[in-house]
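Milestone M4 deliverable, item 7.
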Amino acid sequence: MSTRASRLALMVTATISSFAVGQHAFGQGVLIDPGTNRRLPSPVVNVDEPNRPPINDYRIREIVVNGTLDGTMADLQITQKFVNTGQQTMEVQFVFPLPYDGAVSHLTFLVDGEEYEGEILDATEARRIYESYVRQTKDPALMEWIGMGLFKTSVFPVPAGSERTVSIRYSQLCRQNLDLVEFAFPLRAARFSSQPIEQLRFDLLVKNDTPIRNLYSPSHDIQVDRTNPRRVKVTFTAQNHVPTGDFRLFHDVGEQPVGARLISYRPSSDEDGYFLLFVNPDTPESTSTKIAKRILFVVDRSGSMTGEKIEQAKEALHFVVDNLQEGDLFNILTYDSSVTAFEPELQRFDLKTHRAALDFVDSIYAGGSTNIDAALGVALEQIQDSDLPNYVVFLTDGLPTAGVQSEAKIVDRVNERNPNDARIFCFGVGHDVNSRLLDKLARATQGISNYVQPHENLEAHLSRFYRGIQTPVLTDVAIDFDLDESGSVGSHVNRIYPKESQDLFAGQQLLLLGRYRTNGDGQVVIRGRTADDTVRYHYPIELVEHSTSDRYAFVSRLWATRRVGQIIDEIDLQGKNQELIDELVQLAKKHGIVTPYTSFLADDNVTRRRTADVLREAGEAADALQESSGTRGFSQRALKAQLQRASLPAHLAQNAILDFAGGECVPLTNIRQIGAKTFYHGADGWVDADLTEEQQNSAQRIERYGDAYFRLIDQLGTRFAKYMAIEEPVIVEYEGQVYSF
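Output delivered:
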């Protein structure tokens, strides 16, 4: 074994920053040769024999994070399995940058169960080490770790072809702001290999003596088990995964039946700030406190539903009938050219009607044309009062082919026949539906559109949706914002999404996003109806004047994602206008939200393209919304719905563009989102999205790895360091000055 190979070190990182490079996998580790302090971001290939395995390479088999979050303290165990896929033994060292400025204790490190000694270095000593790496190797990747402490262990061997399991155990103090606790775990601070992580899993237990209210991850699509309100399980699992961000989880506690918490973000005091309000209702403990509902299931039985679709629809109806609650009033309508009802009027759910309804479902068969207008008319006629929440679950797989067939007339007739404010939840199955009609029906009644691809399971979609609306907790919800000094902020809080009045359901968290003009302390007031009363809840809020960190930068991106969805909806349902196209382009470019209408973002020279050309292309692309059905019509409405209901700031559209023809997302490689900024790759390297061509040309040139380069981080601090950690040339604006390095 060569001296160089024997000195390889494994640096396993755990920072809380957001850093992405290239096409490599990210996670906890990167190989470093301590003799030269050079990191190995990719396998070293034998040039003479390109088919031979690389000399030094490894891949991550598994990362499992188990932890308990109790108040602000997190007790964690991280297990990482990796295999040496190179040709010789690696002598490796484990180095662990300490998160949260050293707020870590009781750290132990094990290799295949054997504990290894280690030492903790403070931020000053750690910075000296990091900076020496960068200076010697001319590798900027370690720059963003400057300012953090460091844990490092003794050396251990990893023979060629063997697997090692390393474990870290430590306690971490989490950040807290206004009783909102944040847990962060780094996933993309460094690259370990050129292969995705085969298995990534988080198993977290959040516990408290007080009921746990809001749980939200802005980074990952977590699964939440709320069986016990004081011991909530949070999980995330992925295979062959390339993380695009660190794992973050927010939670708070509270005794009120409805929990609410607001976080605000204002990158500049010269522009409106952003806020995210979490609202999570309690689950009623007794039947008497549950809100009964009127609900009608209106199911297409036309000839096109024959076969698997009608069988899946029947299975879904079995599920929802089995899960109706005492006090609910319900009916089932099926339609083709005519309408057949389970009963002539709504039935109260009990043992007798339960059994009879299941028998009716079993008798459903498919055949005939599609009379949407008649089906909705019969359903709405059965709703004669507004004392209970009224819901219509409407399913179709085709166009209206009988009775009234005009989109506008069907919607007008629904509005005329809906004096009791029933919400219509539409399910479009397959590409043959008139998706624009379904969106218009949902919008007119403050409902929701759902779309099921031809290859997807209808039963799974409908059952999952019904679980969400099964138990209303607070209906006709209204939310007001008050500031202590000026009273109601009124128009100072604006562009709130979702726009529609909401009902809150057990187990369903509402995310309300908006902008604000006036900063200060105050309260948010939530009003609504319970089973037997009208209630009002008050919660303290802070709308910050200026954010000094990018900790909550995701709020602006999440708001922009929903706003883009709203703009597309307005163009779709009300027609195109230039102001909407202008705003769509501006938001998409600033926040890196790529849609088929902003495909110019995939251009490698996007930051130098003429604005007039970009606006023209976006306007032409928006003409595709004229298609009301077919693959393109279906795909556009499905995408729009996901943007409008986005719960993650990156969500569907970031770093991928939907191909309408193929119905798939095509990944992009020229966009990065780092902190609060979006960067685009082109001939000049990575360019800040906010810069004009004139600003790019006038940037102050800083020589990488020179004295001025390191002085810059002293002057601007670690918030700027994440931009200096980009490996290729960068042009970025910071605090009014444009830098190029």
